[in-house]
Design goal:
The complex is a heterodimer of chains A (247) and B (252). Chain A is mainly α. Helices cover 84% and strands 0% of the residues of chain A. Chain A contains nine helices and no strands. In chain A, helix 3 runs parallel beside helix 6 and helix 6 packs across helix 7 (171-179). The two termini of chain A are 31 Å apart. With 252 residues, chain B is an alpha/beta fold. Chain B has one domain: P-loop containing nucleotide triphosphate hydrolases (Rossmann fold, 3-Layer(aba) Sandwich). Chain B has a six-stranded mixed β-sheet with strand order 6-7-8-3-9-10, with helices on both faces. A four-stranded antiparallel β-sheet of chain B has the order 2-1-4-5, covered by helices on one side. In chain B, helix 3 crosses helix 4 (111-124). In chain B, 42% of the residues are buried. The chains are: A mainly alpha (247), B alpha/beta (252). At the A-B interface, helix 5 of A face helix 2 and helix 3 of B.
Chain lengths: 247, 252
């Protein structure tokens, strides 16, 4: 318990340093652009592929579990849409990004720590926490909502393509289903969750990397911890946010 | 000038530095020597403020560095340059970007002025046609020289070098030593070098402090080091057989 509280305390102190006033805005802007490419644009591929197949699987599973003449087939489209909007594109994609982006952030910052690059920044009089971490946090918080939107579109498209190709649903029924009883707030809900998850992933991973002590072995451990801790925190916040936003 | 007074530092109850006092003079290459694990790097990190001292005071030209707040230390650090043991160049930046970084952060120079200053510093450390290379494409000696260029780009008043010769062959080590000595005298900096390389000691040792198990055991210069009667220093200086033979033959 003491260890947890002490860790939480130093995490909050690190955030205090991260959100201090930037030294030179133009340099931070340039760094943020770089991070948008590294952490955002380079994640589009994996998000698209996973979302497409997950959308397809959700559609097929919904279809095989609702093989009952009482249920209209357009419910398959509705079920797929709501699963993708409510949970898959925000939470599952965030978990995937915790693995990809989280380990990337922790290992990059951890390597900078063990190779004394962070000490070099500090010695120059640069706020190393802010210079290294803030652009990553800003980039993920800005870009992850776009990844969620891409995931929603590809997931629904995947369900449509595979569902119609497999003959479990007609194109007309699927399109009718995804439009039926649509609640636009679900998109807002998914995007709010995504922004908070992006903050959790980037800050927890950065904290793990920033506090590495030792060598390459510890960098690897920090990277694993970053993925595990951010995933668990993310799942906890998923419950809290769902209750707060949908109740 | 840098003055350290009664510096002590412990880690988890283990004393690493005990009551070290020293004065490092400007325009000179001041050396801190000692065995691996003797506390040299901890002492250097205390001097630059990367580690907080448990006891004692550090003064930079009579400014009490240890008593400054975060902002004060940050300002003073803009007058410092440091060459780290592993060079600590930023992996994601090219040679030019690495050297330009302190200028981007803290100078109001135009882009062309920055480029000119970067090229001047790179020229000074004999790095040519490598502006677009990344640190991973450089040899160990080149990395050190680029790190020196980055350390001096803002014309610091204080230069710190942590084991500048580690991992380098003897010839490249001499080049780095000469470079540090020349730059120190050109810019009239207070330079402090951590080393256990005896070549450096004999080439650059205008002022030498010997640390053993966290305590200052001896202070002098390169002319005095061979005649010292400090047994711990003699064990360190004459650790290899060649040095012992030289000492014996000079004694005869």
């Amino acid at each position: 318990m003491f260890r947890f509280l002490s860790g939480l305390g130093s995490y909050c102190m690190l955030l205090g340093k991260v959100f201090a006033r930037p030294e030179k805005h133009s340099i931070y802007y340039r760094q943020t652009m770089k991070e948008l490419v590294t952490l955002g644009l380079r994640s589009i591929g994996i998000v698209t592929i996973i979302s497409f197949f997950m959308g397809a699987v959700i559609t097929l599973q919904t279809a095989y579990n609702t093989e009952n003449p009482i249920y209209p087939t357009y419910l398959i489209g509705l079920g797929a849409r709501d699963s993708i909007l409510l949970e898959f594109s925000s939470t599952i994609v965030a978990l995937i990004l915790a693995g990809k982006v989280g380990s990337n952030i922790a290992s990059e910052i951890g390597t900078m720590r063990v190779t004394e690059q962070i000490d070099a920044l500090e010695l120059m009089g640069v706020n190393s926490a802010s210079y290294i971490i803030l652009p990553k946090v800003v980039a993920t918080v800005i870009f992850n909502p776009f990844l969620t939107l891409i995931s929603i579109i590809t997931g629904i498209a995947g369900g449509w393509i595979v569902g119609t190709s497999a003959g479990v649903i007609t194109s007309q029924d699927y399109i009718y289903g995804i439009q039926y009883a649509f609640i636009p707030y679900y998109i807002t809900y998914a995007l709010i969750k995504t922004v908070i998850f992006a903050f959790i992933i980037s800050t927890i991973s950065a904290y793990q990397g920033y506090n590495v002590e030792g060598g390459s072995l510890e960098v690897g451990r920090a990277s694993t911890k970053a993925v595990v801790y951010s995933s668990v925190t993310l799942l906890l916040f998923n419950v809290i946010l769902t209750q707060l936003l949908l109740s | 000038m840098i003055r350290a007074e009664h510096i002590s530092k412990s880690f988890a109850g283990r004393r690493v530095l005990t009551d070290i006092s020293a004065i490092f003079e400007p325009g000179k290459t001041n050396l801190i020597i000692g065995k691996s694990g003797s506390g040299k790097t901890v002492f250097l990190k205390c001097l630059v403020g990367l580690l907080d001292v448990d006891e004692g005071e550090i003064y930079y030209n009579d400014v009490p560095f240890t008593r400054l707040d975060f902002r004060g230390k940050k300002e003073l650090r803009k007058q410092m340059g440091m060459l780290f043991q592993g060079s600590a160049l930023f992996d994601s930046m090219t040679v030019e970007e690495n050297v330009r970084f302190p200028l981007d952060m803290f100078s109001g120079m135009s882009h062309q002025e920055k480029i000119d200053r970067v090229n001047f510093c790179l020229d000074r450390v004999n790095i040519v046609d490598s502006n677009r290379l990344f640190p991973s494409e450089l040899s160990g000696g080149m990395k050190k020289r680029v790190a020196i260029a980055r350390a001096i780009v803002l014309k610091p008043k204080f230069l710190f070098c942590d084991e500048p010769n580690s991992g380098l062959d003897p010839k490249t080590s001499i080049v780095i030593d000469e470079l540090i000595r020349e730059i120190t005298s050109e810019l009239r900096m207070t330079t402090i070098v951590n080393t256990h390389d005896m070549n450096s000691v004999m080439e650059n040792g205008e002022k030498i402090i010997f640390i053993e198990e966290g305590e200052k055991c001896w202070e002098g210069n390169r002319n005095e080091i061979l005649k010292s009667d400090c047994s711990k220093l003699n064990d360190f200086v004459f650790a290899n057989s060649l040095a012992r033979q030289l000492k014996d033959s000079s004694g005869q």
